[in-house]
Design a protein that fits this description.
By secondary structure, the protein is mainly beta. It folds into two domains: 76 residues, Immunoglobulin-like; 35 residues, no CATH class. It has no helices and eleven strands. The strands form four sheets. Strands 4-3-6-7 form a four-stranded antiparallel sheet, with no helix packed on it. It has a three-stranded antiparallel sheet with strand order 1-2-5, with no helix packed on it. Strand 3 and strand 4 form a beta hairpin. The termini are far apart.
């Protein structure tokens, strides 16, 4: 039998493991001006937060398949070109760096409105949306391109 000295007996040491590793950066599927939701993938159990251009933050928990879907409020309508910030936060409150996504403009332009035009007219005038490209094809098959 071995005798254990008092010096060999120690009180148990309690260790606390701190999680300071951020989750993986979430992915965001292409987002267009026609979409009503933001979808993508992220680390299971993390929360994906999307900051809209007006400062509103929408959040969704990533499901057990690593996917998330965030429905946009009815009042949110993108035109294209808007910048959104996306981050993921894990249960230990660690955050990823912000991922910037740009909304793609897929909304077709409104049909231009032409003022009166006759065979005697020497000029074509009308109204279109800003930055639109207007293509005019003449009866001679000649094309005229105008950028508003």
């Amino acid at each position: 039998m071995q005798q254990i000295s008092q010096a060999m007996l120690r009180k148990p040491t309690r260790l606390t493991v701190v999680d300071n590793t951020p989750p993986s950066i979430p992915t965001v599927n292409d987002l267009t001006s026609e979409d009503t939701m933001i979808t993508g993938t992220g680390e299971v159990g993390s929360t994906v937060s999307v900051k809209l251009p007006d400062g509103t933050v929408l959040k969704k928990l990533v499901d057990n398949k690593g996917q998330y879907t965030i429905e946009l409020p009815n009042k949110v309508k993108f035109k294209g070109g808007e910048s959104l910030q996306v981050i993921a936060t894990d249960k230990a409150d660690n955050q990823t760096a912000a991922l910037e996504i740009i909304v793609e403009d897929t909304t077709p332009p409104v049909m231009p409105k032409i003022d009166s035009f006759t065979t005697e007219s020497k000029q074509l005038t009308g109204i279109t949306e800003p930055d639109a490209v207007v293509n005019v094809q003449l009866p001679t098959s000649e094309k005229i391109i105008y950028k508003s």
